[in-house]
Each structure stands twice: as structure tokens, then as C-alpha cells.
Amino acid sequence: MTRKEQKEERRKNILMCALSLFVDKGYHDTKISDIAKAASMSTGLMFHYFASKEELLLELVRLGLQGPAAASEGSDLEVPPDVFLTGFLKEMFSYAKEQPWVFNMFVLMAQVRKAGMPEEARRLAMSSDTMQKTALMIQKGQAAGIFRKGDPGLLSKCFWASVQGIMEEMASDPCMEAPDPAWIVAILKNG
After folding, report:
1. CB-CB contact of 80 with 144 (8 Å)
2. Which of 79, 85, 86, 95 is most deeply buried (CB count within 10 A of its CB)?
3. pLDDT at position 170
4. Does domain 53-186 sit in CATH 3.30.70.60?
């Protein structure tokens, strides 16, 4: 492993340790020294990777925005929206089972969106246009007669709230099986 690869591995380790601690203890109750200890390094060495706890949080939020953003790409595809969303959820649940930190990321992103969190991280977490793009996808599905009538924005929020809840449950219960993605997409469908 090259020096650059070692540095990147340490950086990932710090991020995963911080993610776990932020979810378990809360952002405000987690100290930099807690993260350094969990990452098996000195606090001073950790500052070579991240200048502050807030910088760590911002990096985690950026990482957290990447997953659901992939669902937004479906609004530009010619795949039927129900097929796309079902496939997206299947892939996401499968990936999260292989990489359990993904469950924690959903928990953290929900925490960061609440008042009292560092404003820059909160603003970044709230900047996602996933709900809006999913609403456009739902609108296409409504026009095609696939999805039920109703406010596409509200339907998008309900869809993502159910996904959020499932991911949070799976974070707290590692033995929980992922539900059939078709069940979740069914909340959007006609009939």
C-alpha cells in the first residue's frame, strides 16, 4: 500500500469512527479526543487529517448527500419511475447490508437537519434536491397512470420519510431484514 493509500485509509477510518460516535453519543457530546481514541491515533495526528470536529461533520454530510442523490438521476432516465425507484431501493438496501455505516449515515443526516447543529452542516444537509427531483419523477409516473394522484412533493416526502424510517430501524437492529422495495414504492402507486 502506498503512502497516499495509507493516508486515505486513515481518513476513511476517522470518518467512520466519527460517524459511529456522532450517532451513538450525539455530535455535541462527542469530543475530538473520543474520535482520535476510536481511530487509534493521537488527537494531534488526527488534526493532520481534519482541522476540527465541524470539518469532520461537513465531510460526513457531503458523503451522506451522495447516496440519495443517485435516486435523483432517475428523473432523467427513460426507465418507468416505479421500476427505477424499486431497483434503486433494492440496490441501496443491499449495499447498506454490506456496508452497515450507510444505516448510520441516514441517522446522522436526520440529526444534522435539526436546529442546534452547526449551521454550515445543517444548511448543506438541507440543500439536497433529492425530494424535488423525486417529485418530478412521481409527476411523470402520475402522467403515465402509474402513481396515484396527489401533490407530487408530498408524495416524495412520504416516500423518503418511509425510507428514512426503515434505514434508522435497520441501524438500531442489525438483524432486521430489508423490506421488499416494491412495498415502499407501492405507497406511490394507483389502487
Report:
1. yes
2. 85
3. 92
4. no
Among candidates 49, 61, 75, 88, which has minimal Cα distance to 137? 75
Burial 172-183 (b: 16+ CB within 10 A, else e): eeeeeebeebee
CATH architecture designation of domain 1-51: Orthogonal Bundle (1.10)
pTM summary value: 0.84
Instruction: Average pLDDT across each block of 10 residues of the chain; the chain has 191 residues. List them in order.
Output: 91 97 96 97 94 96 82 67 93 91 93 96 91 93 96 96 94 92 95 71
Structural domain boundaries of the chain? 1-51, 53-186
The x, y and z cell numbers of residue 50, run together, are: 481534519
**Strand-pair partners of 55:** none
